[in-house]
User: Fold this.
Amino acid sequence: MNPSTGPSKLSCCAEFIRFFAMSLANGTLYSPCHPQVSRLCGKAYETLRQALGEDQGISFLLIDDQIIVASQPLAKGPYAERVSRAFRDKKIEHVEFIAGVTASDILQLVGNLLDPKTSYENLAPSPQVRFGKIALSATEKMEKNDDGKENNLISHLEDLPQVEFRIFAEIYERAKSRQSFSLRGLSEMVSGLIGILREDLDSFLLLSALQKKDKYTFTHSTNVGILNLAQAASLKIEGQLLHDIGIAGMLHDVGKLFIPEEIICKPGKLDEKETTLMRRHPVKGAEYLHGISNIPPLAVSTAYEHHIDFGGGGYPRVPANWPLNLCSYITSISDIFDALRTKRSYQSPKDLPECKKIMLKLAGTKLHPALTSHFLSLADSVAIKSIGAVHS
Ligand SMILES: [Fe+2]
Ligand SMILES: [Fe+2]
Assistant:
């Protein structure tokens, strides 16, 4: 998503969808090589270029007959339906166009979508067109250890600093009973956090240290949201995308609310069967969030992807070369850092040098290497050193 998304960008996207749908329809009627298809793809390209503006990329999420751009649904209608169907037939739920995309890339995409012989596995997108899935029904692979003991009870919120954490607590209570919730409260909370972040990065980072007194899942989720915002802001991400990355961090583990409490609350390590159950939380979380209106698509993908490794392992299991979201990489880093510096019944909190050592070892396999070294350079800031001290 990008910060400058507004009505004109959305209307360009709607126009793109219209021309893209017409390209598909004409390609079906004649053939993808017909000059009429090239002409319409050229028009689609023009509108896409306008929608992109100065942005690095633009993502379309396709859920049922709904197309979502920058967290906002495009109007439903025959064009959106035609495009959604074409992608759905190939099991594609997310498509991203990168700056530099050409009219030939669009034409190639139309050809791929119309070719009955191509499937998700053998589609060959150009470097400027990336596909993905939210893949709510993917099989889970059980390889890695999970976070271990967690407790989803919410209490002791009175002393939390400056921001309305109560709103988040309420959202967690609603999620626990699988009720829907309004994103508005969470959006306000994240906006409040972003406001603090702008004023003073050091005290902002300390927010996550101050919350260790609360029960684990809730505290952990807030910390991951805060660490996500710090990482994203230091990568110069702004606006709606920054906001969504914060929300995605806060909701990444929401699926743990649907795991039996005796597993969540078990002191000590989980056995094999319990680990298997625990490892369902990414899928359960994504399924739950997928059903709630106005949730940023990024939060759905992040809930699903945050335990998938940079090197392709982890869980749930996904096809080779699965395109992970930037936010999922960021969230894995925040997640592991917060887990390492948190006290568990079977594990004492690690100090900062030890956290860094462990994270460096994971860089390139479990964690994204460049983002990890960026995070570790952030961790050298005074504020994160203080966090290490608070937790050690
Ligand atoms: Fe998790
Ligand atoms: Fe987590």
Residues 1-5, 134-164, 209-214, 382-392 have pLDDT under 50 and may be disordered. The radius of gyration is 22 Å.
